[in-house]
């Protein structure tokens, strides 16, 4: 593959490059012939996956590995020096709100500061998440796209990750406005693929023992890890898209029930099906009890989360296709086979 | 200092808006007569995110400005321990009472100096030893006061575990050579063990005769961190009255968080993980009854705990942060009434002294061991090299 959008000597920084998506992003950059890549990893990371990818690419010799912590400004300086494109994948996966903000928003702030000071900024690709959206105002089966409102009460949703991502987006927007930072934001749906065995919370929950499938007829905003990585790389390379936001979902999306059925063929486990109205009612009462009891039970189940994860919605990748020229490299049936193969048995969707 | 007024609404400020600050805000909001008026963090972003989530409008990144603008009656310090002493001093000098998260200070000297400063200003300070105020610890204290043990404790055991595998905190710590925890004299242990040590301090005399500490690394930590962070600690303590205390901290014993008190005629076991307290009167049963009755009595104790916990849950008295809320409420009430703070200063200083001694032993020994290993054969047992006996007065 050739890269027609950017000179191959441009230095690119990929944060979170050893993560589930990051490794694929690095691989795709290499496939585009972009070898002037700096991979930023945590010092405690097991680099096995990344090193495997690098060893398989003959032109990966110029790839630079830098380890550090984005909460350290010194480490950010090392990471961003002479870089013109940053693909920012590192994310705070913490359960606490403060931890999520620290590792998402604060880390991003440090990185952009260093980028503006020590880099040669051309673009900052901010990888966010579907978790920032609110679908409360959407009707069932309504279309959730880039124009939908963001979650205004993440505290009530009790979603630290989503809150961290919202704050991260705010930081990026601030820098775009105040310092003219050229940025593109990507909001992937549920990224799946080999290397990530757990089922999406959008399929159901495992909190109470057997797997509880919620709704089942809800379409899942799936994106296979390679397809997602392709979109992220294109967001860094394609000209004329600064300031844009793109949702990342694949074609031929499956419903929760279809996804679970396929998964159960490959990996046997018990599940119970709960309709959406019942999940919503349970969430409603849980939330009320949580408030009434002054938080004796934390509001882990609440109507905002219930709607965000299990309400029937449709998703679109039209903008991604139209503006980035993105097409899913791996069709859904092949993606599912690759996902299920990690369990030892191929399942059919 | 203002005159005590038991009906006064306390103006509370929080300095340090990291993870633990959320718990403080949650707890304080449930305390009648305590009102959070300001937040402060060196990172404005962190103060803002906390303020935004809890509707607290005054957010600062400069401590003197916050103290001047918000004039808090009490400041909760939830910053990394290295800053506790200086931040607390500044707050006390401004006329505010101070609640300091654990560990109270980095050294016993700092703890002593802060308490003296508070006394000079006629203000109160307390340490975030919130596990001392869980329902089971409150019941234990009542039993001890009623002489359930049959005299002063003869032997104490405190077990405290921490799951390094699950905690995102540990990931950050292990991944960052410059993490503030690594810069503490006792590193990981320094930030965690005060809860477990404080339980012993409550029953030990200030005059300690022996402290004997050994430490090592868990196998998991060895694989990721070489030999720099210790996470397995055992300590034996004896005071001048002959009361002995054993402290065990481990990252391998998942979920173990207990206190055992043994007196001449009775024993009490507190299990924080299940919120239980098991009472055991030392008595001998005749013949084969010794095999039947004690297990039945233990079963009755466990059932009693289940009943109490269910009753408390139904009555909304089983919040997971019960201990923190209880401690904060008692501290705030003591400020209003002008009464002594809930944790005696003696205990705070003794806890700090014990920790100082532990770290001086294990890290000194650690250095010596490394030297020994270089010079001697590999088959020297680590436990032998760790042995030390120090008199601590």
Structural overview:
The complex is a heterodimer of chains A (349) and B (393). With 349 residues, chain A is of the alpha/beta class. Chain A is globular. In chain A, helix 3 crosses helix 4 and helix 9 runs antiparallel to helix 10. Helix content of chain A is 40%, strand content 15%. The mean pLDDT of chain A is 92. In chain A, the strands form four sheets. Chain A has a seven-stranded parallel sheet with strand order 3-2-1-4-5-7-12, sandwiched between helices. A three-stranded mixed sheet of chain A has the order 9-10-13. By secondary structure, chain B is an alpha/beta fold. Chain B has two domains: 118 residues, Rossmann fold; 196 residues, Dihydrodipicolinate Reductase, domain 2 (2-Layer Sandwich), CATH 3.30.360. Chain B is globular. In chain B, the strands form two sheets. A seven-stranded mixed sheet of chain B has the order 8-9-10-7-11-12-13. A six-stranded parallel sheet of chain B has the order 3-2-1-4-5-6, with helices on both faces. Chains A and B meet through helix 4 and helix 6 of A and helix 1, helix 2 and helix 7 of B.
Sum up the structure in keywords.
heterodimer; A: 349 residues; alpha/beta; seven-stranded parallel beta sheet; three-stranded mixed beta sheet; 12 helices; B: 393 residues; Rossmann fold; Dihydrodipicolinate Reductase, domain 2; 2 domains; seven-stranded mixed beta sheet; six-stranded parallel beta sheet; 14 helices; 44% helix; disordered C terminus
- Write down the CATH class of the largest domain in chain B: Alpha Beta
- CATH fold-level assignment of the largest domain in chain B: Dihydrodipicolinate Reductase, domain 2
The helix/strand series of chain B, from N terminus to C terminus, equals EHEHEHEHEHEHEHHHEHEEEEEHHHH
Structural class of chain B: alpha/beta
Assign the CATH architecture of the largest domain in chain B: 2-Layer Sandwich
Globally, the shape of chain B reads globular
Q: Could you give the order of strands across the largest sheet of chain A?
A: 3-2-1-4-5-7-12
Instruction: Provide the β-strand percentage band of chain B.
Output: 15-25%
Radius of gyration of chain B, in Å, reads 22 Å
Oligomer: heterodimer
Total of DSSP H or I helical runs spanning 4+ residues of chain B: 14
Percentage of residues in helical conformation of chain A? 25-40%
Report the order of strands and helices of chain A. EHEHEHEHEEHHEEEEEHEHEHHEHH
Mean pLDDT of chain A, to the nearest integer, reads 92
Structural class of chain A: alpha/beta
């Amino acid at each position: 593959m050739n890269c027609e959008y950017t000179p191959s000597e441009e230095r690119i920084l990929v944060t979170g490059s050893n993560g589930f998506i990051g490794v694929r992003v690095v691989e795709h950059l290499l496939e585009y012939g972009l070898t002037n890549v700096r991979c930023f990893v945590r010092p405690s990371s097991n680099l096995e996956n990344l090193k495997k990818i690098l060893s398989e690419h003959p032109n990966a010799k110029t790839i630079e590995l830098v380890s550090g912590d984005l909460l350290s400004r010194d480490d950010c300086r090392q990471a961003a020096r002479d870089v013109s494109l940053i693909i920012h994948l590192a994310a705070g996966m913490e359960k606490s709100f403060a931890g999520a903000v620290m590792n998402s928003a604060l880390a991003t702030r440090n990185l952009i500061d260093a980028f503006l000071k020590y880099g040669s900024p051309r673009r900052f690709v901010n990888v966010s998440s579907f978790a920032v959206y609110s679908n409360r105002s959407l009707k069932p089966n309504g279309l959730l796209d880039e124009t939908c409102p963001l979650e205004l009460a993440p505290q009530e949703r009790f979603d630290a990750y989503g809150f961290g991502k919202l704050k991260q987006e705010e930081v990026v927007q601030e820098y775009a406005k105040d310092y003219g930072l050229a940025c593109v934001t990507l909001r992937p749906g549920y990224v799946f693929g080999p290397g990530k065995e757990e089922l999406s919370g959008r399929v159901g929950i495992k909190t109470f023992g057997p797997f509880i499938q919620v709704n089942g007829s809800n379409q899942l905003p799936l994106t296979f890890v390679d397809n997602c990585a392709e979109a992220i790389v294109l967001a860094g390379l394609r000209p004329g898209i600064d300031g844009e936001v793109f949702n990342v979902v694949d074609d031929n999306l499956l419903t929760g029930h279809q996804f679970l059925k396929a998964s159960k063929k490959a990996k046997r486990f018990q599940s119970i099906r709960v309709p959406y109205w019942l999940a919503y009612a349970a969430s409603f009462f849980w939330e009320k009890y949580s408030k009434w009891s002054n938080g004796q039970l934390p509001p882990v189940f609440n109507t905002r989360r219930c709607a965000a994860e299990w309400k029937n919605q449709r998703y679109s990748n039209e903008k991604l296709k139209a503006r980035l020229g993105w097409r899913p490299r791996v069709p859904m049936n092949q993606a599912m086979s690759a996902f299920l193969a990690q369990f030892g048995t191929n399942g059919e969707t | 200092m203002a005159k005590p007024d038991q009906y006064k609404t306390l103006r509370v400020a929080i300095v340090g808006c990291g993870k633990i600050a959320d718990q403080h805000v949650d707890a304080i909001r449930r305390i009648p007569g305590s009102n959070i008026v300001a937040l402060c963090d060196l990172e404005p972003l962190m103060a803002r995110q906390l303020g935004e989530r809890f509707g607290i409008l005054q957010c600062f990144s400069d401590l003197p400005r916050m103290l001047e603008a918000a004039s808090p009656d009490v400041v909760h310090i939830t910053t990394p321990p290295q800053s506790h002493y200086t931040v607390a001093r500044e707050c006390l000098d401004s006329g505010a009472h101070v609640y300091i998260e654990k560990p109270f200070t980095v050294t016993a000297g700092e703890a002593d100096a802060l308490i003296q400063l508070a006394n000079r200003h006629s203000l109160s300070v307390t340490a975030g030893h919130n596990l001392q105020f869980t329902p089971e610890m409150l019941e234990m204290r009542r039993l001890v006061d009623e002489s359930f043990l049959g005299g002063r404790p003869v032997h104490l055991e405190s077990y405290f575990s921490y799951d390094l595998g699950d905690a995102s905190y540990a990931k950050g710590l292990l991944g960052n050579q410059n993490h503030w925890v690594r810069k503490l004299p006792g590193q990981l242990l320094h930030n965690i063990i005060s809860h477990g040590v404080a339980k012993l301090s409550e029953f030990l005399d200030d005059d300690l005769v022996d402290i004997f500490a050994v430490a090592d690394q868990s196998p998991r930590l060895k694989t990721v961190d070489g030999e720099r962070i210790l996470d397995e600690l055992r300590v034996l303590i004896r005071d001048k009255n002959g009361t002995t205390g054993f402290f065990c901290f481990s990252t391998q014993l998942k979920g173990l968080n207990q206190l055992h008190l043994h007196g001449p005629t009775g024993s009490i076991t507190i299990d924080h993980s299940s919120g239980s307290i098991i009472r055991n009167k030392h008595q001998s049963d005749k013949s084969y009854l010794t095999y039947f009755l004690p297990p039945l009595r233990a079963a009755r104790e466990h059932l009693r705990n289940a009943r109490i916990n269910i009753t408390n849950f139904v009555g909304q008295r089983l919040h997971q942060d019960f201990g923190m809320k209880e401690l904060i409420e008692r501290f705030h009430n003591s400020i209003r009434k002008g009464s002594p703070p809930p944790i005696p200063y003696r205990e705070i200083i003794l806890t700090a002294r014990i920790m100082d001694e532990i770290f001086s032993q294990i890290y000194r020994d650690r250095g010596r061991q490394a030297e020994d290993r270089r010079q001697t054969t590999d088959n020297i047992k680590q436990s032998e090299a760790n042995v030390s006996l120090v008199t601590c007065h």
